[in-house]
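call fold(seq) -> tokens
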Amino acid sequence: MKILCLSTDEAVWNHWNTIVDSSVTLCREHGFSEIDNALASEETYKYCFIYLAHNDFSANVESVVSLQRKYPKQIIIVFPNQASQAAALRLFSVGVLGQCSPYIGREQLKLVLSVVDSGEIWGGKTFINSLITQSASLKGASDDKEDLLQSREDEKDVLVELSDRERNVATLVSNGLSNKQIANEMDITERTVKAHLTTIFKKTHTKDRLSLALLVQNAPKLVH
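ret:
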């Protein structure tokens, strides 16, 4: 398996080489144009790791956005050297599936890869819930929401298909509540919450809590 990597930091690059399995080949590039050329070639990369350095951070985020849009089937995981919920929302909105610490551990990386392989977003539960809570108030978030929502003729019809109980669950998810908190709020079990979410994800064509939350926040009048 080959992983395409962009890292301008020697320490980060050396660390990545210590945490991947021996069967993995890391292919290093030093710029976004080189990454673009590599992805455009006939070579196949299971993942693309991108280290986001402090210098030109915002510009680098936009470069990742452009890459993900150009290669929508490529699994891209970013490793920012600074925390930014606005940047994370921007990246997740276009299909980037993972955000990790540049010095993530070996076992944690395995967990991350298993999560993104299933099509879900990795950012840590606490981070994702915090991101959901703040997403509606972030400047420029409205455009990002449109990117994340799957194209539909009428998005409102998707939410109308939910039962009253499912709408309640979806609304609480959009407010950043955990499954346990939702269970307590609705006086049901966590297992029931999970069952509702499975149905909700299927009906709304969403794949995770973040995309569901953004869908609900984009049509607030439909869900009470």
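The first helix runs from residue 10 to 19.
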